[in-house]
Amino acid sequence: MHVSDTVIDEQVVTEPDGVTRSRAAVAGATAAAVAIGVGELVSVIDTAGPSPLSAVGEVFIDSVGVRLKDLAVSLFGTGHRTALVISMLIVIVGLGAVAGLRARHQLRSGVIAFSVAGAAGLAAMLSRPDDLAPVSIVSVGAALAAGVGTLWWMLRLALSAPAAPIPMPGAAVAGRRGFLTTSAGLGAAAAAAGIIGRIARGGDPVPAVTANYALPRAARRVEVPNTGINVAGVSPYITPTDDFFRIDTALRVPRVDPSTWTLTIDGLVDRPVTIDYAELLSMDAVEVPVTIACVSNQVGGDLVGTAVWQGVPLRDLLDRAGVRDDAEQVVGRSVDRFTAGFPLTALDDDRTAIVAYAMNGDFLPALHGFPARLVVSGLYGYVSATKWLSRIELATWDGVHGYWIPLGWSKEAPVKIASRIDTPTNRVDAGRVVLGGVALAPSVGISAVEVSIDDDPWQPATLGRVAGDDTWVQWMVEWDADPGLHWVQVRAWDAMGQMQTEEVSAPAPNGATGWHRRRIIVD
Ligand SMILES: Nc1nc2c(c(=O)[nH]1)N[C@H]1C(S)=C(S)[C@@H](COP(=O)(O)O)O[C@H]1N2
Ligand SMILES: [Mo]
Fold first, then answer.
1. Is 245 in the pocket of ligand 1 (CB under 6 A)?
2. The model scores a pTM over 0.85
3. What backbone phi and psi angles, to 5 degrees, belong to 89?
4. Is residue 306 in contact with ligand 1, taking CB distance under 6 Å?
């Protein structure tokens, strides 16, 4: 048999019918994986722009989320980015397999399928031109070329490899390598490219971009007290930054250059104000511990934390712009398009509300909103805590709806009274056991925490000292535990005398309620 390479190629290109269905699917799936890997790798040449994968994911989060509201909330509202990315990979590799099956009869239809996917990636990028890098567009082209090339190569291999009854030129190479080995190798290379891309995009750029700035000393500081609660297992009063919960809709953490960043205060104001980073740092600042909480926090959950925030009082910034009488809402806008709005009247009491630029003694990390974010005591994050803040707009109440409002979450969202048992978690030895945890009613403060064991009468807990009403409080109770199975529950009272409700409700639409209970086995 003397068949030239060209003829084999020609056969594969025009009628790869000889390829089994499973091999065609594997070829297509491999090609899709390679395309994603190449897209991730090429796009990191300029991390300002998205990769094809992240562009599609971001558009998905912002648009499909509206219809799949509850799913979106449970997936992204609680930060399950990894779940989203893995789902996308599965779907895309699956679509690649389908494209492979189509290409089995006609390579052209496989090429068309890949081109459609490429066009979708491009469209996703072009729909959000504000953070598009030219490299992003190049990465789509590179991904498409790599995908189509891999598809062609894999089909050729499938046709000529082990199943081929007669040795052919070209088949010799394929025969040695093997179809599945090649697929696995390419898959591994694609995964490596993806991981390299992740690493290149990961890492906090803030230490480098703040090298030329000094963190100023705050004009007014609220000291962090020694709380007096030193119980192993109880959350520290101040949450270390690395342990601080992170919630946002950003697949890629915005990387903001402080030397070009500005903050504008406009809308219903007398004179719109724009300040730059240096000016923000030069204003009189406060440094104060404040607890912030996510509305998605479940009873007993950990989407809540306390940090020492440093920043400029929001009122000072609003006064510079002169808030007009018709303003009713403060809307924070982020460089990543996120928005959150809360009533202007929330600023009437003495709660802390600041444009924060530092957290626990350091510049804000990128994850928590560098260069500046809002921190408002007593309001859930989705209506108040805009990270990567670029604009504060004064609006009427109905004039603007923040990001999560059309998705079914309440427009007003004061933090609900909550209490949590941190320790013990499930098993202890009989005898003296210390129960402990945290309770919060930020902006008002907690006046009492009570614990009940096995439905015995409620007993008061010892409360830790606090910096003020803007933070949670640590609590503890001693318990002489008998062997057996016990139920422990906790409830709290705020400073207005309001008791935490026992009524169980889900986080949507404005925060979970109910008492936290734990089952403890005493040995
Ligand atoms: N730009 C932006 N800011 C945001 C969000 C977001 O998705 N994008 N999420 C908000 C929500 S829902 C919460 S609970 C807080 C969480 O802040 P953290 O990640 O610093 O804990 O950020 C708020 N600020
Ligand atoms: Mo949140």
1. yes
2. yes
3. -60, -45
4. no
